[in-house]
């Protein structure tokens, strides 16, 4: 098996999954790929949407005592709930995290899927999952356990091309970037604007400074899209807060960027 480490999947929480199932395809031009009945073990219902070859999962708690319901109440719905890294070595990565003092929150081991979720308080900003699906070293493999067996048929790239970066915000940006660099075993590269960037084999993480009183969150998804203005227009029609190149949905900002050739045209 070849080594790989991909930032493949981000999880958002809502109290209205049916609205999400209507609005995400309408706003971004993507398609619902999968609703996982196995998500019930985590006390949620969910919907998986391919954004390019990565995924955005929107989930809703099944009852008020579910962990995701506590997240909505505690955080006010702000920030992403979790990021999932597909990797060739989730066991080793989870074990290393525990040696660094990060608690294991949950483990799942089935015939075709192995995953470890780390405790969100120890991760800081958002929960981390390391997982592996059988055959996923080939990125186009028909099985991606979280996305189902037919996810490829749901990929639509007419409007939204994919996720470029996920932005984590913290008053202690240096400390958060260093912490995640240790957990992910990847360099946090300092940039001229004072931020840090951790690259993976798919998508990247950007660490940005936030005001002193702010909570640490995964606050922004940066998308490459065909036409930012059309997405903003559709989001406004559905009642979401918008600006010139951004949309706010499910507690985070979707920052919209046209491809470089379109920007220079």
UniProtKB/TrEMBL annotation:
Looking up InterPro entries in the UniProt record yields: Glyas_Bleomycin-R_OHBP_Dase, Glyoxalase-like_dom, VOC_core
Ranges for the VOC domain? 6-133
Q: Which superkingdom is the protein from? A: Bacteria
Name the PROSITE patterns for this protein.
VOC
Which Gene3D superfamilies does the entry mention?
2,3-Dihydroxybiphenyl 1,2-Dioxygenase, domain 1
Give the protein name, as stated in the record.
VOC domain-containing protein
Which organism was this protein described from? Chelatococcus reniformis
């Amino acid at each position: 098996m070849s080594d790989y480490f991909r930032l493949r999947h981000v999880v958002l929480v809502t109290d209205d999954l049916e609205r999400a199932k209507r609005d995400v395809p309408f706003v971004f031009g993507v398609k619902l790929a999968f609703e996982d009945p196995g998500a019930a073990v985590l006390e949620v219902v969910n919907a998986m949407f391919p954004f390019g070859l990565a995924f955005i999962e929107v989930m809703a708690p099944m009852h008020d005592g579910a962990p995701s319901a506590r997240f909505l109440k505690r955080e006010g719905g702000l920030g992403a709930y979790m990021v999932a890294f597909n990797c060739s070595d989730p066991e080793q990565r989870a074990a290393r995290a525990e040696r660094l003092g990060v608690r294991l929150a949950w483990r799942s081991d089935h015939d075709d899927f192995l995953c470890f979720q780390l405790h969100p308080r120890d991760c800081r900003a958002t929960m981390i999952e390391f997982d592996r699906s059988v055959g996923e070293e080939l990125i186009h493999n028909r099985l991606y356990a979280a996305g189902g067996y037919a996810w490829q048929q749901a990929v639509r790239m007419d409007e939204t091309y994919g996720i470029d970066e996920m932005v984590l915000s913290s008053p202690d940006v240096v400390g958060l970037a260093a912490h995640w660099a240790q957990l992910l075993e990847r360099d946090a590269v300092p940039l001229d604007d004072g931020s840090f960037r951790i690259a993976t084999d798919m998508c990247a993480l950007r660490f940005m400074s936030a005001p002193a009183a702010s909570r640490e969150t995964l606050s922004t998804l940066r998308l490459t899209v065909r036409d930012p203005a059309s997405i903003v227009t559709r989001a406004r029609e559905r009642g979401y807060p918008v600006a010139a190149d951004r949309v706010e949905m499910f507690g985070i900002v979707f920052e919209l960027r046209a491809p470089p050739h379109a920007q220079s045209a």
